[in-house]
Amino acid sequence: MKEREIYSHLRVFPPFAVRIDGKGFHRALGLLGLLKPYDEIFARAMADSIELFFKESGLNPLFAFTFSDEISFFFYEMPYNNRVEKIDSIIPAFVSSALTIQLKLEKPVSFDSRIVILGKEDIYKYLLWRQAEAWRNHMSSYGYYTLLKSGMSENEAAMSLKNMKASQIHELVFSHGINLAETPVWQRCGIMIYRESQEKTGFDPIKQKEVKTQRRRIIQDWNPPIFKTEKGRKLIERLVS
Ligand SMILES: Nc1nc2c(ncn2[C@@H]2O[C@H](COP(=O)(O)OP(=O)(O)OP(=O)(O)O)[C@@H](O)[C@H]2O)c(=O)[nH]1
Ligand SMILES: [Mg+2]
After folding, report:
1. What is the C-alpha separation between 101 and 202, in angstroms, rounded?
2. Which residues of the chain have pLDDT under 70?
3. Rounded CA separation 131/171 (Å)
4. For residue 153, what pLDDT is reported?
5. How many angstroms is it from 96 CA to the middle of ligand 2?
6. What pLDDT was estimated at residue 127?
7. Res 177: pLDDT
8. Structural domains for the chain
């Protein structure tokens, strides 16, 4: 029967990204009574689940980028002989479990998963794409909930949004007291999670002198730059190298 495991020899070679996305989270999060369109409790649970992934999964992502219910992990190395079935199952399973713990959920949740093959030089382009999606998502979800508040049904709101230009959505939301250029940065630009080396000075009791050591700590950056800018490009360049 082993030969029937026909996908077990599929392999993928780094660098690549793995993007996972919450299944049916519109409904799942709605049932939890989270704030709409954005709830910091949920974003924090996602970021903390990623941090747990860095610490406990046994995998070693270069960094991760998250917004809404999706996470992209970037890898330069992968155990399991680079087997696609392992990668696409273990990663979403770990995050589903971590998020269940973080949010103390009573119903199970799941994430789907795909592998995105990237050359080192494509990582920046990929991030530009996902951050643009975070921005579009930010605009349309504020627009959507503003239309619902003004009395439209879900279908009507979705249809109206399709016919609106970005500037019209901005004006609509602004007329309800929200400036889309001034919402929290994490809602517009996403959250980056990465490891950073820090030099620490300690005292070596045997040598009786001060010694410098490198500590790796995990950073959650809730104010990432716009990747299109010089500052953003430099950050990605640093992470990728
Ligand atoms: N209330 C609330 N909902 C959120 C938040 N972040 C994400 N979501 C929900 O998550 C959904 C993510 O979009 P999608 O991934 O396209 O929708 P989905 O329902 O997960 O559907 P599939 O991914 O296709 O299974 C959004 O539509 C929101 O409803 C949040 O902070 N608060
Ligand atoms: Mg989803």
Report:
1. 35
2. none
3. 22
4. 96
5. 12
6. 98
7. 95
8. 2-187 (3.30.70.3000)
SS3 assignment, position 113 = strand
Instruction: List the residue whose alpha carbon is closest to atom 21 of ligand 1.
Output: 24
Phi-psi region of 23 (alpha: psi -120 to 50; beta: other; left: phi over 0): beta
For the entire predicted model, the pTM comes to 0.94
| Triad 226, 144, 174: Cα angle to 5° | 65
What single string gives the DSSP state of each residue in 38-55? --HHHHHHHHHHHHHHHH
C-beta 24 within 6 A of ligand 1: yes
In eight-state DSSP terms, residue 36 is: S
pLDDT reported for residue 30: 85
Write out the H or E segment, with its range, that includes residue 149. Answer: helix 122-149
Ligand 2 centroid distance, CA of 234 (Å): 30
Atom of ligand 1 nearest to the CA of 32: 1
Residue with CA nearest ligand 1 atom 16? 26
Q: In the prediction, which pLDDT does 82 show? A: 96
Of the candidates 64, 71, 77, 51, the residue with the CA atom closest to the CA atom of residue 113: 71
Q: Indicate the helix (H) or strand (E) that contains 238.
A: helix 230-240
How many angstroms separate the Cα of 155 from the Cα of each of 13, 36, 83, 160?
43, 17, 42, 9
In this structure, which residues have their CB less than 5 angstroms from ion ligand 2?
Answer: 21-22, 25, 69
Q: Residue 77's pLDDT is what?
A: 95
